[in-house]
User: What shape does this take?
Amino acid sequence: MRQIAVLGATGSIGRSTLDVIARHPDRYQAAVLAAHRSVDEMEALCREHTPRYAVMSHPNAAEALGEKLRDIPTQVLSGADSLDELVTDPAVHSVVAGIVGFAGLRSALSAARAGKHILLANKEALVSAGGLFMETVRSGGATLLPVDSEHNAMHQCLPTMSDGRPDMTNVEKIILTASGGPFRGRSRAALDNVTPEEACAHPNWSMGQKISVDSATLANKGLELAEACWLFDRHPDQIEIVVHPQSIVHSMIRYRDGSVLAQLGQPDMRTPIAYCLAWPDRIDAGVAPLDIVAAGKLDFEAPDLAAFPCLALAQSAITRPGGMCAFSAANEVAVAAFLAGDIRFTDIDGVIASVLQSINLVEPDTLDAVQRLDADAREAAINCVTLMATPKTQS
Ligand code: NDP
Ligand code: MG
Assistant: This one.
């Protein structure tokens, strides 16, 4: 019986993971659940899965949850130190890094240091601290398995070593697919007045708000470009980005003999999650079989960098030391401001561009340095958002 720590349990990745775990009570136990402050959602999950521990990063939320869960044996803890202790607990076999954004970095690093089996969904941690993270995985003897559907597809199309590391010997190119998001085909001018609700209505995937907006701006594909470079030890020009609106082909690997291997499947995160949970075995994920005839045409086209400049900004930032750490921090601030109604959709790339121009970029090689660069980029982004923000009408 493997004990699993699900970080970001109340989110889209966390819930999909718990759904797969619940289908295999003989193999997996959700031993630790962690979230930020969604107390009612966490209470329901704890009653359903009875983990040994529940951790809320917000102290008031932990207190409220503790009150509600007096009648079940789950112990409620609070804060980052408690989470560190639990992810490094020798009884925990696998850690699902499903916290959204930079906030997930510390616990992901702790799991790497403790040599855990890491199911990595939190791409922002890898993008911001790639060198440090990959080195910690190596020195800690951890097994790193990508949950992100594209990187999971790449992993499935590559030979792997016993510790999960991919063998890149004969690979010529990685082909990273993108759905194009809800606004694919629109001109830049037609994006000015789109609302958060429209941006979060992804045509194929059901996801958290932040990654949904990232998919709509194509910033997500920029983050995923950096993610692929770190996971598969590639230079950005060894990765081609292709828009594939049906989200059936999740990515491809081209080998030196001309063969292209692709992984296909329903756009349902339970498939990559089940792959990572069971690797190198396979388990039922609860996903409906792919009907390739019903899927019909599979289209591929080049991304529109003029309408969606976030991707071009990432392609440039990735060549600069610390560039993607600043990109990711600025993007987080800009997306939060867009979701709050403070800036327009088309202001998001402006915030990122301004931050990349204004701050002093250096390659961050320690956790302190990563945190400093992230904080500098956030401060610059907040200043930029304040200048752009449309004053709200007074009530
Ligand atoms: P959601 O917004 O649905 O969930 C986020 C989770 O993180 C919630 O459990 C939330 O807790 C928790 N959280 C937020 N802030 C903190 C914090 N400061 N400390 C601790 N926990 C926190 O996000 P998703 O599940 O969509 O995404 C999670 C990660 O997975 C992201 O990095 C995303 O890029 C990646 N990913 C997601 C995919 C998807 O299909 N959703 C696909 C590929 C990658 P609370 O509810 O209490 O706020
Ligand atoms: Mg993805």
